[in-house]
Amino acid sequence: MELDSVQDSQDLSELHKLEFAHSILGKRSALKEQELLPHLKELHQKLKELEQGAVDLESLSTVANDLTSTQILKNSSKMVTAVAACCLADILRLYAPEAPYSNLQLKKIFNFFVSNLSQFGKEDEDLFQYHFYLLESLATVKSFIIISDLDNADEITLPVFDEFFKAGSNPSLPKNVQVCMTDIMTQIIDEVGTSAQEIIEIILDQFVKHEKTPTVPSYLMAAEVCSICAPILQRRVCQYFSDILLSVSNAEGTEELEELRKAHDLIIKVNAVVPDLLLNVLPLVQEEMKLDQANVRQIATETMGKLFMHPESNISEKYPTIWKTWFGRKDDKLVHLRVRWLEMCVDIYKNHAESIPEITECIKLKLSDPDEKVRAIACKIIGEIMAGCDLKHIDKSLLELVDGRTKDKKNSVRVQAMKTMGSIYNEYYASIQENEKMAVQKLGWIPNSLFSRVYTGDASVLMTLQDTLLAYIFPYDEDDQQRTERLVTVVESLEEKQKLAFTAIIRKQQRFNDDLQKYVRMCEDEVSGMTTDHEETSNDEFMKYLAAHFADRPRTFNALRAFLIRKNSRDIKLLKNSIRTDHDYKQLYKSKDKLIANLNEDQAGTVEIFQAIINRACPLIVNKACITHLLKMAKEPKGRRQTALSQKALTAQSILKEISITYPVMYEGCLTEITKGIMNDKDNIAAEEELELLAELSKSNPGHRKYDGNLIKRLRSYVVDGKVSQANLASVILGNMKNADRSMADLVESLSDGLSLKTRNLLSTLTSLSQFALYTPQLLTPYIDLIVKFVEEDLLKTPTKSYTESNPEWVAYDKLPELSKQKITGVRLLVNYLTACRNEMEPEEHIITKTFSILWDLLERTCDGALTDNTNSAETSHLRLGASQAIVKLTHYEKYLNELTVPKFERLSYTLQDTCFYVRLEFAEFLMKGLQTEQIHPRYYSLLFICAHEPEESLLKQIRSFMQKRLSSLEIKQAESTVLDSSLVRLIHLLAHHPDFTITTEDLMVFAQYIRFFLSCVATAENVSFLYHIVQKIKLSKDMVSAELSDNSYVLSDMTSLLIKYKCKESSWPLNAYAGHVTLQSKLYKSLPPGAVQNETMEKSYLPQAFIEKLEEEERRKLGDKRARTSVVGANKRTKV
């Protein structure tokens, strides 16, 4: 016992005592600052020097007690309170782990600390040192742990967090202060265990306040606190979000939804900083994605999407069930949610490679979504995910599905699909141009696919295609050479059908350019005040015609009219200059851009339409500036061995030829270079490209071009001694030159004189004469009798022996024997002569009669006859085809119309049932092209229905598609003969006079197919009553060509009526009485006398009962098959989630 006392005495003697002789309290009132402050500073210095655990605590009791006095804690001097706080912090340090104060005193002391610490950032440098000392001491000693036993400790800790984060809003807050504040806050959370949710709010609020300035100390401290205390805060954060989400998730009001959106935004912000803090929060969001409330479900889905798309996110791996729930929202019943879901897939795809296969398959499915908005956005995001993507990661199959959407029924989808296809091609064009194998294989096909859309014939599709081509396939490029090389690269990649589409676009553009130039002249007349009332009406009609080229006709018409009545001379001139074909590329763009800028100022509503109008007419794809570069590319060496260089040369030649046909004015200034190529041909074996260009240019301006003597001499040598192709082209050039009717007379005479089968270069001679006949027919008039006689009696009567056992029905023209080519060319010569004489010249009647007699006789030359005679079968096919085409062409002119009687017209229809497929194909395509361009009479629509039994499905499909587009949308005009009714009337008349027509059941079933084919192409719910009325009118008429065959027409009339009824039943169309009046073709039918005769005819059924029964049985079977297919489809339908 004594030993312990001695030891304690020794320990006490080793402890340091505070030696402080001053009093810091006044006896009656507080000491003045100048007296008190030195004492406090001295005390602070002495306390600071004392070490914890090595001080006699009894020596501290007086100052410890005095420091809690109101005189100190409530002192008005900031310096006094700052130094006093430091002293109190030292007292707590020296007394640790116990404090020499009551709970009430501790509460006052810590509030005093908080008050001082709130001064950070507001004090001067002298005060800062004491405040930092206080902060550092509290952090190091962990003094705040003491308050864990206090009641309502949150009243102290809450202001601590509040004041620390306020101080942290100052960007210049020192780093060491931040560290200490962060330490204190983490100590409070870890050790004090405060339960105040307000602290969670204060911490999380920093991520909202300083989202745009994440380097601010408050943001950094909040992030650090959350990171260190994540395990403790997870439950509280979950409770915080749970309270918010539950309070507003069942409400649909605007304010509640805004609060919900704010909470989800905060979740996103927290995830970006401390994702671990959301461990228990994300399952709450997952449940929200399953709720029935659409707004809540969408907000939750968007939130998770943003979390998944973060580059450093691993949420999909940590929470696979949440990923699965989110992924299931792709089939949400809300369209806008499916759209938003797809939009979020872009960044997920780019930032998380592991998700690519799953997302890709989903996007493929969404391209077939029932809603157009979803399909459109699916197309859009494919373009976004492939932008900047490595070529090896591009999925060609995905692009092919986008390509399919360019044929979508909805315009919005087509627009986005084409934009995506075009933008991807544009982005990787450099690699394609360099002929990189992977780029060409994956993307080189895009222009080919886009040009295929030309064949839809839909105005909105063509407008979208036009915009896509100019924006992405042929984008703006001031470098003429690069732009020309791109043009060649694109055209070279096209297949033959798509090259025709490219040609069609250029030619449509040229025709619209002509029309728009006429519109410009209208505008100029309007400005000058020269427009009459009649012209105003005519102008409106013309503007309606222009507007018909666009999908939105009313809007286009209004834009054209608004520009017309605007009478702005400056802008009219700009419009004129923006479509001039003799301007170069930069001039066109400069005028166009200036015009659009001007319209934006006072006619903004018309800008989009006028942009489309100008693009339709402006020669931006091919233009004057590219001619020189194309000529250079076309001269690259060409040989038997196909190389990339020689292929580009051939493509350049084809483009040059098209420009010479469509825009010959662009060649002005380049003629010298073209003629130089012809003159440099020393051996008469080259220069065909130049000849071809010059020939086209000559045709564009006949009778006006003059050439020097040397060039004419060279051209004449081609005619006499050149190849057939050279003679042909040279004759075109010479026949169209100025004063050709005089200067070429001797040449034509020498070619015509003494024509015989032994004539040297007979094919070349006939070819040249054929061109002279077309362009200078007056030169051939003196010799035409001899030529006709030679063709008829010598050429066509000379048999062409077949030297092959197979003797095929068709071979290409180039593979025909020389004599066959001579016959074809001889016939063409006669046809060209009549063609050239159609207007001004009057050929002798016997020449017309003889030529048509030859043509009709050629239709009787059959392949069977050739096989029997052992003559060339393919020759007869070419001659039948050529004769058929010539008859159609010539009888389009008024002068020769009498040569096409009704029986002969019906005879012409048999060409479409020729034994040779190529004859049928070529003649059908000839008719379709002529009808589409209105170069032949609409009567020929009826001929095409004779193809109903065409065995080649591809040709039948082509004809059906053409007829559906051309005829089904035609308007029915009251009291007028229309294409629609005349086609049906002519078809029935054709069938009634067909040599195979009988009323046996078998034959009638065959003929029913013609009517079915017609109805499948033409009939709609809108016109079916009209068609039925036409058929009834036929039954009230008699055949004007052969009255004895009237019954055949009545049989076909009854058959058509029955088939129309079946069609209506099958399609659920009403068949109402047609109220209008129609007059049938007078050359075909004449009305029966009214009364008994008509009644008898109408009441009588001309169809055999056996046929009716068989037709009904067939229709029942078809209806049953249709119902069966419908039920299968219905069973396989899946309901969207």
Topology diagram in text:
Layout: H1 2-14, H2 33-49, H3 61-66, H4 70-73, H5 78-95, H6 103-117, H7 125-141, H8 154-168, H9 175-192, H10 197-209, H11 217-228, H12 230-248, H13 254-273, H14 282-288, H15 294-309, H16 315-318, H17 320-328, H18 335-351, H19 356-366, H20 372-386, H21 396-405, H22 411-427, H23 429-433, H24 437-443, H25 446-452, H26 459-473, H27 480-492, H28 496-528, H29 533-547, H30 553-566, H31 569-578, H32 585-602, H33 607-617, H34 627-634, H35 644-662, H36 671-679, H37 688-700, H38 709-721, H39 724-735, H40 740-743, H41 745-752, H42 762-775, H43 784-795, H44 818-836, H45 845-858, H46 863-869, H47 873-890, H48 902-909, H49 917-932, H50 941-944, H51 953-967, H52 979-992, H53 1001-1018, H54 1024-1035, E1 1037-1039, H55 1046-1067, E2 1085-1087, H56 1092-1099, H57 1105-1132
Antiparallel strand pairs: 1-2
Count of extended strands: 2
Beta content comes to under 5%
The low-pLDDT segments are: 1-10, 972-977, 1127-1137
Oligomerization state of this entry? single chain
The tally of helices reads: 57
Which geometry do the CA atoms define?
elongated
Main sheet, how many strands, which sense, barrel? Answer: 2 strands, antiparallel
Q: Write out the strand line-up for the largest beta sheet, numbering strands in chain order.
A: 1-2
Helicity level? 55-70%
Whole-number radius of gyration?
A: 47 Å
Mean pLDDT: 89
